[in-house]
Amino acid sequence: MIYLDHNATTPLDPRVLEVMLPYLGERWGNPSSPHRFGQEVRLAVEEARGRLARLLGCQAREVVFCASGTEADNLALRGVAAALRSRGRHVVTSAIEHHAVLGTCRALEADGFRVTYLPVSREGVVDVEGLAGSLGPETILVSVMHANNETGVIQPIPEIAALTRDRGIVLHTDAVQTTGKLPVRLGELGADLVTLSAHKLYGPKGAAALVVRVGTPLRPVTTGGSQELGLRAGTENVAGIVGLVEAVALSLEEAEAEGRRIAALRDRLEAEVVSAIRDVRINGAGVPRVPNTTNLTFAGVDGESVVLGLDLRGICVSTGSACATGEPEPSHVLLAMGLTAHEAQGAVRLSLGRSTRPEDVGVVVEALAETVERLRRVSSLAQPAEASARSGGMKG
Ligand code: PLP
Questions:
Q1: Which CA distances in Å does 35 have to 30, 41, 42, 211, 348?
Q2: Number of structural domains, the chain?
Q3: How far is the centre of ligand 1, averaged over its atoms, from the C-alpha of 287 (Å)?
Q4: Ligand 1 residue neighbourhood (C-beta within 6 Å)
Q5: Distance in angstroms (rounded) separating the CA atoms of residues 343 and 334
Q6: Do residues 193 and 243 both lie within one domain?
Q7: Residues 217 and 279 in one domain
Q8: Is position 1 within any domain?
Q9: What is the set of active-site residues?
Q10: What's the pLDDT tens digit per position in 223-280?
């Protein structure tokens, strides 16, 4: 199998599993218990919090562990909205956010907030000037992702932070697709709230964090115990937390060298695809992207059919957001970039990772070329029959 769907999820690094195992076995105490069995695991959680803070360049008290990136996004948006609703009811986001943010924005709209969905350029970059123009006295929150999960395009978060900081507006960025892929420090990003998720960086599923910079107004959105500095009620997933932090440490250690290796493979893959297959568009080419992602549109074919065709050959790719699979609609990200619905249906996302080897490139390009050519042949055979059927030529 060649797995090129690392933006959907990654395998658990055996080194991460190793540090998790004691907390799935003999160290099963509740970190809120006052006895030594509980306090032993409390120590593990607090050590993990301190280590993550050092890795990211923030304070330990700014780290809130959550159960998923989706939950962290919800806490960021709903939490700021709840804290600041008396000050203003305008939220700004982009049209290309993950559903975890977009769905939450829709919920806020239903709750009386006004949301601006910023457009992006043809390359998939949020328009910073447009963003500046959209901010007003009612604006309390801006949420723009650090890199898009479908195209890998990196957004200008430091520039956006300069705008929000001046105006006292809270900035959230969903860094689920960049943590561990880019060697960034939070201070350089300038966001007040940052989401990350373990399973995108060779950590376990069901473990994530929201970094909440000191002074950021945020209300909890779950009611219950006072865990996680009172911001996220619920008994901590100790093994998940320990695994998340180990995964971040390993990914950051390897980010620079691995990023260079993967970017070279991705660039070679793109060059070979373009020379082997006609009418291909690389979505997001020409602007900064995370090193592992390429999003390709093949004119005249359906991306879902390409995914299935490659699957038959043991190659795992995606049409875009894993969460959108099963939805018949074309990608909202590609539509926002100005592709037609037809073009967006022809998109395939390949996201490389640690298991990707140089020899995989040729195998994947050949499989893609054959699959796309076969699909184009089939659709050109089908078209005259369809046209004839539409004109009434195929009755009975
Ligand atoms: N944000 C982005 C950009 C993502 O790519 C994903 C997952 O696909 C999420 C949020 C959701 O993270 P989780 O799967 O941990 O809920």
A1: 9, 11, 10, 29, 53
A2: 2
A3: 22
A4: 68-70, 73, 98, 100, 145, 149, 174, 176-177, 197, 208, 322-323
A5: 8
A6: yes
A7: no
A8: no
A9: 323
A10: 999 999 999 999 999 999 999 999 999 999 999 999 999 999 999 999 999 999 999 9
pLDDT digits (tens, 9 = 90+) for 171-225: 999 999 999 999 878 888 999 999 999 999 999 999 999 999 999 999 999 999 9
- For ligand 1, mutation pick of 66, 99, 173, 176 (most atoms within 8 Å of CB): 176
Round to whole Å and give the CA distance between 78 and 72. 10
Domain extent for 239: 13-251
From 102, 143, 149, mutation site for ligand 1 pocket: most ligand atoms within 8 A of C-beta? 149
Q: What is the CATH number of the domain that holds 17?
A: 3.40.640.10
Specify the CATH number for the domain of residue 338.
3.90.1150.10
Cα–Cα distances in angstroms (integers) from residue 268 to residues 16, 153, 261, 275, in the given order: 31, 18, 11, 11
Residue nearest to atom 14 of ligand 1 (CA): 69
Of 221, 251, 281, the residue that ends a domain is: 251
pLDDT in tens, 301-350: 999 999 999 999 999 999 975 444 555 589 999 999 999 999 999 999 99
pTM of the model: 0.94
In a domain, 82, yes or no: yes
Q: How far apart are CA 274 and CA 125, in angstroms?
A: 23
For residue 2, being part of any structural domain is answered with no
Structure tokens that stand for 223 in this block: 């009611």
Is residue 77 included in any domain, yes or no? yes
115: β partners: 91
